[in-house]
Amino acid sequence: RQVAGHAIFQELWIAGVDQGNTCARLPTSNSPVTDVGSTAIRCNGRPGIASKCTVAAGETVTVEMHQQPGDRSCKNEAIGGAHYGPVTVYLSKVADASTADGSAGWFKIFQDGWSSKSGSSVGDDDNWGTKDLNTCCGKMNLKIPSDIPAGDYLLRAEALALHTAAQLDGAQFYMTCYQITVTGGGAASPALVSFPGAYKASDPGIHINIHATVSTYIVPGPTVYAGGSTKSAGAACVGAENSTPGPATPSATGKTPSTHGRRRNVISGERGYPRRRVCCKED
User: Fold this and answer.
1) 222-231 in b/e burial notation, b at 16+ Cβ within 10 A?
2) How far is Cα 272 from Cα 233, in angstroms, rounded to an integer?
3) CB-facing half-sphere around the CA of 13: CA atoms within 13 A
4) Is 261 a member of any domain?
5) Taking the model in full, what pTM does it have?
């Protein structure tokens, strides 16, 4: 069952080239995981698939989120219903990404968290990673660390919605695991955390009332690995995200998003890349 406002990370881009959902362990529903002690917090409870995406160490990849399966329209919010919170990405080194169950250790390679917004009186009005997803047509760019060993990895993209997080266990986690094979790289050995284990329901970045004033915010989990990347919440879109037409029209929770027609590719040559297909428009 697909719910309006909820969302799924669905597609992956590598160096600006759209891989679609070929290496994504797609969730069967766009509903969240709320139990941080469940093994579903790893990869949304999804088993492995046959396909993997190959990416060079040090390369930029883009994760892409939308509310409904197959809807890549920039006219709809990527995640709706005032689902505000941080966006994070983790990697887990595994023997075979197509069979790994997510029990191996993880390290964080990206986050887009929170920043205060001038004139705001409540956290809802501040800048958040999920707001950046909405502004950037569901896309978020991040760097694969250049010094990690070659081999198979699970790449776990997560959006955390905090609109009901004032109550314990009210936070909503939306995650998808992508199966990738990293080439090149080095011999780094990042510190690892486990899922479940990295989060506690009582963590200040998980159990929080964003409908009141937020003076500081700590993104859940470990710090970003030194070879990774961060985005300042509220900062402009970069790279493939620049191909989008701007912020989507907010959708109310419980309202079914509209259905649009077939898409045509838009061509862009962002950030020095050759001109490639980078987003979509509606016919």
Assistant:
1) bebbebbbbb
2) 24
3) 23
4) no
5) 0.85
∠ at Cα 190 (158, 223), nearest 5°?
A: 50
Q: Give the residue numbers spanning the domain of 179.
A: 8-236
Looking at the 3D structure of the chain, how many domains does it have?
1
CA distance 35 to 213: 26
Q: Report the amino acid identity of residue 101.
A: D
Q: Give per-residue burial for 12-25: e unless 16+ CB within 10 Å, then b.
A: bbbbbbbbebebbb
Task: Give the CATH number for residue 29.
Answer: 2.70.50.70
Q: Which string of DSSP letters, residue by residue, matches 203-217? A: -TTTS--TTS--S--
Q: Containing H/E element for 282? A: strand 276-282
Q: Is residue 39 in some structural domain?
A: yes
Residue 274 lies in a domain: no
Structure confidence by residue, pLDDT tens digits, 215-232: 999 999 999 999 999 999
Task: Give yes or no for a contact between 221 and 109, defined as CB atoms under 8 angstroms apart.
Answer: no
Residue 104 is assigned to a structural domain of this protein: yes
Please check whether residue 143 is in contact with residue 59, taking contact to mean a CB–CB distance below 8 angstroms: yes
Q: Which pLDDT tens digit goes with each residue over 84-131?
A: 999 999 999 999 999 999 999 999 999 999 999 999 999 999 999 999
